[in-house]
Amino acid sequence: MSDLQLQGLRKTYGTNVAVENLSLDVRDGEMVAFLGPSGCGKTTTLRMVAGFVSPTAGTIRVGGADITDLPPNRRDMGMVFQSYALFPHMTVRGNVAFGLKARHVNAAEVPSRIADALKLVGLSGYEERYPRELSGGQQQRVALARVLALRPKLLLFDEPLSNLDAKLRVQMRHEIRSLQKEVGITSLFVTHDQEEAMTIADRIVVMNVGRIEQAGTPDEIYDAPQTRFVADFIGTANLIPGQVADGRFRSTRGFELPLPDGAQASANEIVLSLRPEKIDMVAPETPESVVATITRVTKLGSTVEYAVTLASGDTLVVQKQNRSDRNNHEVGGQVGLLWSRADARLLP
Ligand code: ATP
To answer: Nearest residue CA, atom 21 of ligand 1?
Structure first.
């Protein structure tokens, strides 16, 4: 088994706390993405798991064994970096073979290990090419093959797609996802790209200033954010500050709503979070709809984004699919807004 357990991990640099009391259990075969803004500690966490950075406190276990103090080369992990770090003077075969030789894999086994790994990444037949004869995506696949050939217990990805152009990134996300499921190796994936995390991961760990803000499936993180940081960081969210009183939400500007389902009544300052695509635009006279005026229309290609202002002065963003037969609203027009109560969430 190669489940991974992080317990109370902490890393400080002088007075700067990079990672604080981070605990996480990663199941055998699971793909977990670490997501968060620059400087939140995701790379430091990955490097502690890899053994390049030693924790100030806490333990790291793989399959139950404490590896906190093991050097990187004894951890049985494979790491894929943003820079492919291929040897330019070696062929694809030479690059993949290099790590196997360094780890003293039985020479008789090397050819089949190379063939299997290149097959997995779809590069059979490219053995004799040099890195300069490959596209960026192919080079990254070689880097992946090099790591897969080692058959590590854990795969660690450090922003591996950042150097690729936008279209290729999207394609490689799907490739990495299906490859990881095929080989079943427990994996960590660091990224600051939320779509990448949502596509690739079984579970996303959202980090903020060195701590885990929320860990959950992509659906949980998106549909049920537990803090305003998560709601704001993942996708777009309308965040309306306000208070709860007499069983109703009242925005700071005075816009009132019945409480969302299951919401805890509390007099504390909170925000109401509502995703732009969960709001329907209907005729302004529609019963129970909230009347709003359209103040901005932005065409974003496949979607149209509307900024709308309520009578209270609160502004919301509404997103609709760009269809010629619908949503032909213009600036200054009045609409009614409707949403399902379950989609409005009160957050601390
Ligand atoms: P990015 O997306 O920009 O790579 P990150 O989430 O991976 O960010 P880390 O690289 O883990 O963030 O850094 C976390 C914090 O620790 C930052 O404040 C960073 O400045 C600090 N830090 C990281 N490495 C060192 C170091 N070697 N010495 C001092 N401070 C460091």
So the answer is: 18
